Predict the 3D structure of the following.
Amino acid sequence: MVDNNIKLTGNHSARSSAPGETKARQDASVYAPVTSLYGVGSALAAKLKSLGIETVIDLLYHFPRKYLDRSNVSTISSVKTGQDVTVVGRVCNVDLRETRTRKNMLVVDIYDGTGYLSGVWFNQPYHAERLKEGTEVAFSGKVNFTYGRLRIVNPDYDIIGSPGGSSVAEQVHTGRIVPVYPCTSGVTSAMLRRLISRALAYVPGLLDPIPERVRDGFKILPIEKALKQIHFPESPDDLKQAWRRMIFEEIFLLQVGLAYKKRFRQRNAKGIAHKPPGALVARFLNSLPFELTSAQKRCLDEIVKDMTSDYQMNRLLQGEVASGKTVIAVLALLLTVENGYQGAIMAPTEVLASQHTERIGKMLSEIPIRVEMLSKGSPPALLGDIAKGDVDIVIGTHALIQEKVKFKNLALVVVDEQHRFGIRQRFILATKGKAPDVLHMSATPIPRTLALTLYGDLDISTVDELPPGRKGVITVVADESQRIGVFARIRNEISRGRQAFVICPLIEDSESLEAKAVAAEVENLRKFFPDFRIAHLHGQMKSEEKANIMKRFEAGEIDVLVSTILVEVGIDVPNATIMIVENAERFGLAQLHQLRGRVGRGVERGIFILFAEPASDEAKARTEAIRKYSDGFSLAEADLMIRGEGTLFGMRQSGVSDMRLVKTSRNINLIRKAREAAFEIVDSDPLMKEPPNQLLLEEVKRRFARKIDWLFVA
């Protein structure tokens, strides 16, 4: 028995519509437009396109979101009000009438020898064309009792036999485990069932992209059987095996893509072999008022090893908030500068880019190199200096990837908070040089389990140790009854010469609403703290205004800074010791952890207070997790368990946004084994020229063509 509300994770087509080279080897009809199916005209095709369905194979990969068990047929006399049933009878009356509210109501009565039941539709008179008297039909749906008659409103139905008594082969809505699909306006689940049942006729022409030896090793179904069973399973076990196949396929294809990309890069992307660190790096290290932690030294050694080799570095530097990643990045940039090259840092916001410029400029003030920030408003002369190689380190946002920005000899690209950028943005910056080394940085800790899936093509360095002397941050979840006490704590901190953040949620994707929320919060705070210097920061402000506010806050000229999520990453104000987050239930765990990292960066302990009124179990779990876990890696693992990986790590910008079916945290053992098998295939056939592997590579390209940057080099 299948549960009547089996929810699954997949809900959209995972395939690209373009058949590519495989058309010569596959049955081309599999990649034909969906209009090649009977019953699909241009109007319906336009609606299907909004579901990501443009070809027959798109339709086949549009998987159900749940299933209903209609394999048991009831007699009409046995059904009860409120039951979800399937009954089979012969149409004995068809009545199309108008209700008192002037709606068209179609009533179709059926009789099965034990009793009568009515199917009722409003403003859908066209069903009468199929449901003529004498037709044998199966009705499925929830039963109610109205006006002395059992009835089902908007029943799903199948024509079992015509008035003459002949049966109809197509039976897709009733008498079986029935799929329920993601739909859109004008496209019902019943309509999709009929179309997919016709599309399955094309499956025998579909070659399996997963080699037979892999299928045998993992004991998974061949593609033909899996597609038939995932849409129209004959039993719960068949359904389970079909989903296991599709989940494995999704994992395995991504791992093959990552393995191919990594090996391709190692063979072909010859990088710049830097000389080992010299006087410039040593001078900077000696100027630091602290010694690098052992974790920083280990990560730096790994980066230096990459940069002094003759292959292109492609490394992820991840670490806890305030763990000292920026210092490592500066050392890498100095290494490239002392070798006669340029370096660039791309940050997600102008506020962060400005702060990077300020901080790195101070760090390097005693060292004779030129650091500049590039923004949309930068003078043309700066572009000329960058092109001539007169600027050693360029820091900016998306402005760095404008076509007019040219570098003389870019050799190192640092992408800060890399998950905030799209793959193509990161790729374009890397093309500004000749195979420059690429260092991705992230302060969103990524569990090892997820890193295998997300960044299987990258080498990973982890700063898992905080600098000594940090006292940490106290996290408190509060409600409105505690607000007076919280405000008293703010007053106490500021009276001791410290500063505070107050964060407002992003209510909607609207800068004007951001501004209103921030303005209202400022007015409220001024009533409580008329003697404090209060300023605000939001997305609607001009770049110069935002930069000026941050400089004043860093200089201690502002006591309380009211801001949106703009200060989420990279902001470093050691004197800020307390942060209040309003409506904290609206934020994700990664955002909350990043915000928490803005306080406690000096010698004083930080205080992080969340005003939250979580209405859902998920929101309650998030607020409890942020209170319970202080380190980002434990928090990231908790978030995986709470809501999966889709929203935590910006996966919409990575290939994993196409992973409709897989919950990484629940499939880690399968991922490990699939990864091993993928690398074994790529290592044994690096060019993927053997027929099974060629088909496999073509399928990976088709699946992730617009999502993963490895295709740019293949």
Notes: The chain has four domains: 1-68+179-205, 72-175, 279-308+324-442, 473-629. The chain has 21 helices and 21 strands. Residues 236-268 form the longest helix (33 residues).
